[in-house]
Amino acid sequence: MRVLVLGSGGREHALARALHRDPAVTALHCAPGNPGTAEIADNHQLDPLDPTAVTELAARLGIELVVVGPEAVLVAGVGDALRRAGVPCFGPDKEAARIEGSKAFAKEIMAAAGVPTADARVCETAAQVEEALDAFGAPYVVKDDGLAAGKGVVVTRDRDVAAAHAAACGRVVVEEYLDGPEVSLFALCDGQHAVPLLPAQDFKRAYDDDEGPNTGGMGAYTPLPWAPDGLVDEVMARVVQPVVDELRRRETPYVGVLYAGLAITSGGVRVIEFNARFGDPETQVVLDRLATPLGVLLQSCAIGGLDPETALEWRPGSAVTVVVAAEGYPAAPVKGGEITGLDEAAAVDGAYVLHAGTKLGAEGRLVAGGGRVLNVVGTGPDLAAARATAYEAVSRIGLPGSHHRTDIALNASQS
C-alpha cells in the first residue's frame, strides 16, 4: 500500500511512525512533512490546502491511501477532490468536516442526534453575547464558531475577557460551563460504522496546575486509570454512532476519525466539542499503544469496509507525551533557536522524540520552526514509569528559552 500523509506537525509524525510500522505499507510519503518524517518517509514540499496540488501528487506517486492530519485541509475540501479523483482518503469531506469547522453546526447535529452536550446559544451581536453571558453565568465559555487551531475557546470568570473574546471572533457560541475531568476519544469511521481507540487526556493550559492561556495542547497520556467503567461503550452508543447516523441520514457520510472531546460531569458524560481529525498531542500516545496495523485499518475506513466488530489490539503499559514549546509560546513563539540533545533523548530506554515544529536552518542545523517544537514520548509498564521516562528524555534536550509543563499525567500516575 502506497500512503500519503498530509501535514507537518507532531500528529503527522506520529501517524507516519505508526504507518511505517505497518508491513502492508510499502511506500510512505508526507506533504509537506518535517525533518522527523524525512527519516522514515519521502517528504514533498507543497501546500496541503491546495486540492489540485494534492491530487496531482497523489496521482504521480500512485497513492492508494491519503491520510489527512490538519483540520484546515479537510475544511478546504481536499478530501472531496481526492475522492473525485478516485483516491481513497481517510478524512471527511468538506460538508461533514463542518462538525469541527462550525461550532454552531456541531450543536445542530448533536441536537438532531440526541447527543448530551452543554446548553448553548449562537451569538452574532454584542447584545446577544451579553444576554447569553447573563443566562449561563460564570465560568463563562465562549467559542469561536470557526476554526481556530485549538485556541478559539476562552473559559474565564472575567466577564470582560469573555466579552472581548467574543468581539474579536465575530460569530460565537456561548455555552454553559461543564464541570468534571475531560477525556478525548477517537473513533475510526467508514461512513456507517465506527470503532473506538483508547481514550486519552490532554493538557490545554500553557503552565503547571492548568494556569496560563489555552494552547494547542502541552501533553497527553493514556490509558486513564480513573475513567468510569463502560465509558467507551457509553460514548460510542450515545455520542459517536448517533452522530455518524445523523450525518449519513443527511447524505454526508462521515469517513475518517471523529474526535469527541468529553466532560465527565456530575450529571454524566457531555460533549464539549467534536474535531474532524486526530487530536494533537493525544494521537502521539494513542498510536503508541496501538498494536493493530494502522494502514490497513485506515484504508478499510476510506473504502467503506470497516468491520464494526473489529477488535483492536493494544500494547500493554502506558504512554506519556510532553510538549517542548518555544520561548514565548503561545502568544509570540520565538523561532530559529537551535535544538540539541535529540540523540541523547532517544537513547533513554522507552523514549523517543516526534518533531512538531522543527525545520532545518543554516548548515543543516535543526531549529525551532513553530510554537510547539517537539513531542517527547515516554513509555513504560504504568503511568509513573512512562512519565519518568518522558521527563528524563526532556531533560536531555536543549532549546534556548523553551518551556514545558512538569505535571503531565502527574495526578493520574498517583491514583
Automatic annotation (TrEMBL):
Residues 107-303 form the ATP-grasp domain. SUPFAM superfamilies: Glutathione synthetase ATP-binding domain-like, PreATP-grasp domain, Rudiment single hybrid motif. InterPro entries: ATP-grasp, ATP_grasp_subdomain_1, PreATP-grasp_dom_sf, PRibGlycinamid_synth_ATP-grasp, PRibGlycinamide_synth, PRibGlycinamide_synth_C-dom, PRibGlycinamide_synth_C_sf, PRibGlycinamide_synth_CS. Pfam families: GARS_A (PF01071), GARS_C (PF02843), GARS_N (PF02844). One of its GO terms (biological process) is purine nucleobase biosynthetic process. It is an enzyme of class 6 (ligase). Pathway: Purine metabolism; IMP biosynthesis via de novo pathway; N(1)-(5-phospho-D-ribosyl)glycinamide from 5-phospho-alpha-D-ribose 1-diphosphate: step 2/2. Its EC number is 6.3.4.13. PROSITE patterns: ATP_GRASP, GARS. GO terms for molecular function: ATP binding; metal ion binding; phosphoribosylamine-glycine ligase activity. The keyword Ligase applies. Keywords: ATP-binding, Ligase, Nucleotide-binding, Purine biosynthesis. It catalyses: 5-phospho-beta-D-ribosylamine + glycine + ATP = N(1)-(5-phospho-beta-D-ribosyl)glycinamide + ADP + phosphate + H(+). Its cofactor is Mg(2+); Mn(2+). NCBIfam families: purD. Belongs to the GARS family. This is Phosphoribosylamine--glycine ligase. It comes from Actinomadura physcomitrii.
